[in-house]
């Protein structure tokens, strides 16, 4: 099997001719001459010639026109909108070629976008091939699957296996035969509408078989008669002789624009392609009328219909025997976040099909991950430390020197925040939008700095506590984090843009208890987007991250630099860390990050006069005298309490005064309150929780 594919349709990978030329800096891009005055627009078909020197490296590019698919808005194909970098294009090219492809993607470098574009290009260039997608978790799989749904891939060719599909942010069912059956009914309704528009008698929209006869004898014959007279038609006749005008009455009118005979004929062909696609899908759905049991239908969907199948490693392991017995086959396998997959879990998806005649059908194996982030979770310490079982196959390959494509530009975090973990990678720059987009130019309202570490001393002589073995909590940090969240909400920050992270499960439960006590039920403040651990939040991001480091006696498992990289790389615009600075800055492994953190003041610097969003630029850093410096956690709690009271008072004063009207006497309860009278606001209680109350 050849490693490189000569000519390939790159579909919507490139946004323009300029983007194409920028994507191959080491090649001479030669565009095929188009008609004079006509701009070269994507999609492009590329023939890449690799040589030893610059002169022999060429990319022969030819643009081609996509066929008209019909007159409706949903007929317009979905297109990629991401301007891929040259390194990302190199990864996409490598993934489309045969063999093993390994892509190392630091945080925010678009690993998922690269994976989705590889899948899309394989789908369009090799429609007969099937691709298996595997991830370590349902959450990672759903994120990948949702991005696939945004591209030009037919929904009937997508299959999501397992029970994680409930988390998909879509109303469509990609996991069972229900989607196919509902689509079949909708298509048969369209056939009935077409029958009515043509004035054909009989019940032709009852089954897929009757619809196929209707297409062959009524629809196709009319089209062939119409198409046969094209050479003799005038411009007006292309529209007047078109046999399906009544069927397309609900399409944007006028159906034919009348600009030229060629353009109107292209519209007519697009309309027929729309009709033909209805009957093509019904022909594919016909076996579902013959297969009666749900198991047989699901097996047919898996074996024959689906082209892109997604599942977790766990599902692959549980169902391997059933899949092999059903003669499940695939040509390509893509593993996302493969650095978090155990070695044995990596091999299981490769063994879901048996070789035929001594040959394995597998053509491509694409592994995408980051070995500098968290490894697979091994709870048995003996296996983890002495058997090295936490090393993934992806990490092993990297250490053995297997060639990789290293993505080298991040587009997630501000440059200043990215510097906290940039040192861990060979080369990691920023994408252009990091310095161009308005949200990255603007400062964080109410804060002097875009990132800061806040030193949290013991509260009442207590730092970290351990109510249960390995169940670490820190009450002072929990109160400080929640008070900071409440402060942000009072300034106008949306709750869904704020996430509170911690490094221990015990602290996670304590944070949730404090939030429930302080503000969880208060409609003015509410809950943050998530309160979870750093390990659970890998692969996700948010605009503003509040991080609690918990430990005050020992560094704990944050000593693992991979966990530190994950913790520092979750924020896009603002990162506020609360911990015992003297403990962590003396840890050798963490020095490159904490050296940058401690260059800024160790007390929280606030600008409470600002509101979200602010008009202040990051470059306009206010002086120390302009900031309000918070000395400790009790001071922060008291300040937020006072700020809340003044905010509520201002809201009450802004309400219009009610005009007194005569009303009936309202029933009064024993405590003097009027029955049914709504409570305007609820005062925040700021007594400090007893740590024992937050035990799990």
Automatic annotation (TrEMBL):
Residues 5-83 form the RNA helicase aquarius insertion domain. The keyword ATP-binding applies. Its main location: nucleus. One of its GO terms (biological process) is mRNA processing. It is an enzyme of class 3 (hydrolase). Residues 389-580 form the DNA2/NAM7 helicase-like C-terminal domain. GO terms for molecular function: ATP binding; hydrolase activity; mRNA binding; RNA helicase activity. Keywords: Acetylation, ATP-binding, Helicase, Hydrolase, mRNA processing, mRNA splicing, Nucleotide-binding, Nucleus, RNA-binding, Spliceosome. Pfam families: AAA_11, AAA_12, Aquarius_N_3rd. Residues 87-380 form the DNA2/NAM7 helicase helicase domain. GO terms for cellular component: catalytic step 2 spliceosome; nucleoplasm. Gene3D superfamilies: P-loop containing nucleotide triphosphate hydrolases (3.40.50.300). Transmembrane segments: none annotated. Its EC number is 3.6.4.13. It is found in: Nucleus, Nucleoplasm. It catalyses: ATP + H2O = ADP + phosphate + H(+). SUPFAM superfamilies: P-loop containing nucleoside triphosphate hydrolases. Involved in pre-mRNA splicing as component of the spliceosome. Intron-binding spliceosomal protein required to link pre-mRNA splicing and snoRNP (small nucleolar ribonucleoprotein) biogenesis. Plays a key role in position-dependent assembly of intron-encoded box C/D small snoRNP, splicing being required for snoRNP assembly. May act by helping the folding of the snoRNA sequence. Binds to intron of pre-mRNAs in a sequence-independent manner, contacting the region between snoRNA and the branchpoint of introns (40 nucleotides upstream of the branchpoint) during the late stages of splicing. Identified in the spliceosome C complex. Component of the XAB2 complex, a multimeric protein complex composed of XAB2, PRPF19, AQR, ZNF830, ISY1, and PPIE. Identified in a pentameric intron-binding (IB) complex composed of AQR, XAB2, ISY1, ZNF830 and PPIE that is incorporated into the spliceosome as a preassembled complex. The IB complex does not contain PRPF19. Within the spliceosome, interacts with SNRPA1, SF3B1, SF3B3, SF3A1 and SF3A2. Belongs to the CWF11 family. This is RNA helicase aquarius. It comes from Bugula neritina.
